[in-house]
Amino acid sequence: MGFDFTGKRMIVCGGSRGIGLAIAEGFAAAGGAVSICARGAAGIEAARAGLAAHGGLVHGAPCDLADAAAIAAYIQQAAAALGGIDVLVNNASAFGNADTAESWAASLAIDMMAVVHASHAALPQLKQSRGCIISTSSISALRPAGRQPPYGAIKAAVIHYTGTQAALYARDHVRVNAIAPGSIEFPGGLWERRRSEAPELYQRTLRSIPFGRMGRPEEVANVALFLASPLAAWVTGQTIVVDGGQLLGG
């Protein structure tokens, strides 16, 4: 079953590569108008050019997602460029993995507070369109692990906040859901680097996935498209795990 987002306006924060870019690609391929942001201007421009090949309206701008004022300015700019907002995707991550003040601060600012700031900035438009918010969490939020203390804890907070937002905005007909991906591999991403830099960890993780492979960004994007579509019109406050059974392996 295909998706049709003709006439819909989507913002993807953290949309220049990996899962975010795959989500933006899915929306653009289905006829949606898309805006993406990330910190690097070069990455945004490369992604924007690729998305434009689908023939629809594409907007892109660099944005420091650790900066509340920059987020508000970007959301306003994107809404003006697209003519409104129907879907907000919060996908950026600092991937904080050290139990240090610096790593905690980066994870809180980008993985959590960017969700708060972007949602607040987009909410007036989302109320008008009866739109939706989709945030990327992680299966790391669902089980303790000593490898990434800030990342897992903050992603757990994203899941809790997703439910809180859903309750807050339900009477405005704004749906809010989250996705918890497992280990996803793509060029330039974390797991591609770990394949060469930490091969034992890579192989151990691979063995934990019953399907016997890492996930692909488009497999997460497909769930995001479902959550943004009319097929999910009665779904809010939920977190969908997309991990090929990785959590089942313990």
Give an overview in words.
The protein is globular. Strand 5 (132-136), helix 5 and strand 6 (175-181) form a beta-alpha-beta unit. The chain has helices at residues 18-29, 41-52, 68-82, 101-129, 149-169, 190-197, 199-207, 217-228, and strands spanning 9-13, 33-38, 58-62, 87-90, 132-136, 175-181, 239-242. The protein has a single domain, classed as Rossmann fold, CATH 3.40.50. With 250 residues, the chain is an alpha/beta fold. Helix 1 (18-29) packs parallel to helix 2 (41-52), helix 1 packs across helix 8 (217-228) and helix 3 packs parallel to helix 4 (101-129). It has eight helices and seven strands. The model has no long low-confidence stretch (mean pLDDT 95). The chain starts with 8 loop residues before the first strand and ends in an 8-residue tail after the last strand. The chain has a seven-stranded parallel beta sheet with strand order 3-2-1-4-5-6-7, sandwiched between helices.
Task: State the gist of this model.
With 250 residues, the chain is of the alpha/beta class.
Secondary-structure-derived class? alpha/beta
If helices are DSSP runs of H or I spanning 4 or more residues, what is the number of helices? 8
Tell me the overall shape: globular
Report how far apart the termini are. Answer: 33 Å
**Largest sheet entry:** 7 strands, parallel
Keywords:
7-stranded parallel sheet; 250 residues; Rossmann fold; alpha/beta
Which SSEs are present, and which pair or pack?
Elements lengths: L8 E5 L4 H12 L3 E6 L2 H12 L5 E5 L5 H15 L4 E4 L10 H29 L2 E5 L12 H21 L5 E7 L8 H8 L1 H9 L9 H12 L10 E4 L8
Parallel strand pairs: 1-2, 1-4, 2-3, 4-5, 5-6, 6-7
Helix pairs in contact: 1-2, 1-8, 3-4, 4-5, 6-7
